[in-house]
Design brief:
The complex is a heterodimer of chains A (192) and B (189).
Chain A: H1 2-29, E1 35-48, E2 57-63, E3 67-71, E4 77-90, E5 93-107, E6 116-132, E7 137-154, E8 157-168, E9 179-191
Antiparallel strand pairs in A: 1-2, 1-3, 1-9, 3-4, 4-5, 5-6, 6-7, 7-8, 8-9
Chain B: H1 2-32, E1 36-49, E2 57-62, E3 66-70, E4 77-83, E5 85-88, E6 95-98, E7 101-107, E8 116-129, E9 134-150, E10 153-164, E11 176-188
Antiparallel strand pairs in B: 1-2, 1-3, 1-11, 3-4, 4-7, 5-6, 6-8, 7-8, 8-9, 9-10, 10-11
Classes of the chains: A mainly beta (192), B alpha+beta (189).
């Protein structure tokens, strides 16, 4: 009888094991995703300042604009680095364009990290280094941006639409004029 | 004693139920599964231009393009459109570069379209205007890649060859052979 009892207890323990392990995995999953990753289609109206006399404005459209890699937070504030990189070497020179940007995202009270409206503001750089047959030259332009956006859930992901203003500061030493952009970006967000 | 055994059997049954239900859900998931594989990459390639007087060089770009793959319910083949667009009319000068293409991915592993090795081949167009007139070129490419699961996503590595036909109007954006790779992240929905 003792054998039967101990066998039964062992069987119960074995059957319970996957359930307990599953419960632990579920609990760790409840911690939620860590990152919001996304890319967008962007369109903007741009106006060039700093003494521009003619043909000073225009429209730009592009995809992918940059890569968004947001860090999820339990609070209302979260950080979202954005970046794009293009490097070409050879062809008689080189050209490096690197645009890092760091945005803060403040989600509105009724919103969650995965849906609803948010406000955002950020600081970025446009770094360019190029050479064409001679010595290389570098130029950096500082930019500030602000916008308002909304996440719209779609199955396990979300559409994200954002209207923004961006001001690129003049770099007079390098002859880069200031520029003002107003536009929108529409893309998808994925969580992991 | 009989009561005790009966109770233990009930406990065993109750405890096993959620695990059994979960096992069924896990089995169904790959069948219903994700419908799309979405990803972006950083690309690095050696580009050998066929244009007279232009030497080869290295090109590195991120985000390279947008991948939007259609995951089939079954089968080893999968279609994946890829797209990049850059359009500008700033300063009275209109320029654009639009590169749509379609790739076919052939899964060569038991992991299906979520993990393991695959072969790919694709064709596309390079449509552009650098300011000196518009041009179109044809693009063909082939490669081999791997998906490596990373939590709910996957890292994706791909190496291959790309050939772009000539087009005087497109300048350096056409008439070249490139050999290189792309590394990025894939996410499913």
């Amino acid at each position: 009888m003792r054998k039967v009892t101990s066998t039964l207890v062992a069987a119960v323990a074995l059957v319970a094991l996957p359930h307990i392990a599953l419960a632990q995995r579920a609990r760790s999953a409840a911690g939620g995703p860590k990152n919001e990753i996304g890319v967008d289609l962007g369109a903007a109206y741009s106006h060039v300042g700093s003494g521009c006399a003619a043909d000073c404005s225009g429209i730009g459209i592009g995809t992918p604009v940059d890569i968004r890699w947001g860090f999820m937070a339990t609070g209302q504030l979260s950080f979202e680095p954005r970046f794009s990189l293009s490097y070409i070497s050879g062809f008689g020179g080189h050209d490096l364009i690197f645009n890092p940007d760091l945005n803060v995202i403040y989600r509105m009270k009724k919103s969650t990290p995965r849906r609803g409206m948010y406000l955002t503001g950020g600081l970025g750089f446009a770094i360019n280094n190029r050479a064409s047959g001679g010595p290389s030259t570098s130029a950096t332009q500082l930019s500030l941006n602000a916008g308002v956006g909304k996440r719209i859930p779609m199955e396990s992901n979300a559409w994200r639409v954002e209207g923004f203003l961006r001001y690129n500061f003049e770099n007079s030493g390098k002859g880069i004029p200031s520029q003002f952009d107003i536009g929108a970006r529409l893309g998808m967000s994925f969580w992991r | 004693m009989r009561k005790l055994f009966g109770g233990m059997v009930w406990v065993a049954l109750v405890l096993s139920l959620p695990a059994a239900a979960h096992a069924q859900r896990r089995a169904a998931a790959p069948m219903g599964g994700a419908k799309h594989e979405f990803g972006v990459d950083v690309g690095l390639a050696y580009v050998s231009s066929n244009i007279t007087g232009v030497n080869g060089g290295i090109v590195m770009v991120t985000p390279l393009d947008v991948r939007f793959g259609f995951v089939p319910r079954s089968g080893k083949m999968m279609w994946e459109p890829r797209l990049s667009l850059n359009f500008s009319t700033v300063g009275g000068n209109t320029t654009y570069l639009f590169t749509p293409q379609v790739n076919m991915l052939y899964s060569n592993s038991t992991g299906g379209h979520r993990r393991g090795m695959y072969f790919t081949g694709g064709a596309g167009l390079v449509l552009g205007d650098g300011g000196a007139g518009s041009g179109t070129a044809v693009k063909l490419e082939g490669g081999i890649g791997w998906r490596k699961p990373y939590e709910g996503a996957a890292w994706r590595y791909e190496f291959g060859l790309q050939w772009v036909s000539s087009s005087a109007a497109l300048g350096l954006a056409a008439d070249y052979i490139a050999i290189g790779g792309r590394v990025g992240i894939s996410l499913w929905h």
